[in-house]
ABM domain-containing protein
Amino acid sequence: LTDFLQTGYDLSLGEAETVQWFAVKYADTEPSTYAIFDTFEVPAGRAAHLSGPIAAALMENAPKLLSQAPEIGEVDILASIVDLKKGAGGDGRTAGLSVGLRVLFEAKEDKIQTVKEFLIVSYLSTVRRMYF
C-alpha cells in the first residue's frame, strides 16, 4: 500500500488543479491505517481529481490492497497555513515534513457557527504571529 501511495504522489504532480496532496500513515495503529488528504482552489479542481487517474487507480486496487472500501468525504477548507519555508528540505516528496495531526470533531447543532468562527479566528491569530 505504501508503494501505491508513492505512485499517487507521482500522479498528483500531473494534476494542475491539485494544490496539495498528502498520503499519511497513522502512527501506532494496528492494523496499519492510512489516509489521503488533498486540497484544491475550487470545487471543479476537486471534481477533476475525483474523476482522474489517482481516484481510478485507488478504486481499481482497493479490493487487493484495502480491508474495506475507502471512505471519501468532501471538506470545505475554513482556514489553513502552508508555510513552505518551514518544510524546506527533505526528499521532495515530503518537503521536509514527516509528522502531522488529524483532529476530527462534530459541532453541536447550536454551536456550528461558533466553532466555525473559532477556527477562523485561530487561523488569523496564527498568521498574525507568523508574519507581523
